Amino acid sequence: MRIEEHPVIDFKRKNKIHFFFEDKKIEAYEGETVAAALIASGNITFRITDKHDRPRGLFCSVGKCASCLMVVDGKPNVMTCVTPVREGMLVKRQKGKGDLT
Ligand code: FES
Q1: Distance CA 35, CA 51 (A)
Q2: Which residue of 33, 39, 47, 64 sits with most ligand 1 atoms within 8 Å of its CB, as the best mutation to test the pocket?
Q3: What is the largest CA-CA distance in the chain?
Q4: Which of 25, 41, 13, 2 is nearest to 89 (CA)?
């Protein structure tokens, strides 16, 4: 779900783009973060904790915690709440600390 209009803030939606989350095509808009586009498409689990396999998603939304770390274009530990989404980006759920090899 996205805010379509706001009583105080006037904003113009930018161009529609697509990226992939777990090999599923997801719609997004230029200027959105990866996390915002995922939340808007109903995907709320971004990573799974190492010790207890617990789901984690958006928490601080400003790059100050580690709740939103994901694997983006093969690179682990990307803070998706502050990473702009790009056309064709490949996003995967991260398990634990991510594969650093
Ligand atoms: S949600 Fe806290 S760093 Fe992204």
Answers
A1: 23
A2: 64
A3: 48
A4: 25
CA pseudo-torsion sign 52, 96, 90, 66 = positive
Mean pLDDT for the chain overall: 94
Decide whether any atom of ligand 1 lies within 6 Å of the 90 Cβ.
Answer: no
Dump pLDDT digits (tens) for 2-31: 888 899 998 888 999 999 999 999 999 999
Ligand 1 near 29 CB (within 6 A):
no
Identify the band that residue 99 occupies on the pLDDT scale cut at 50, 70 and 90: confident
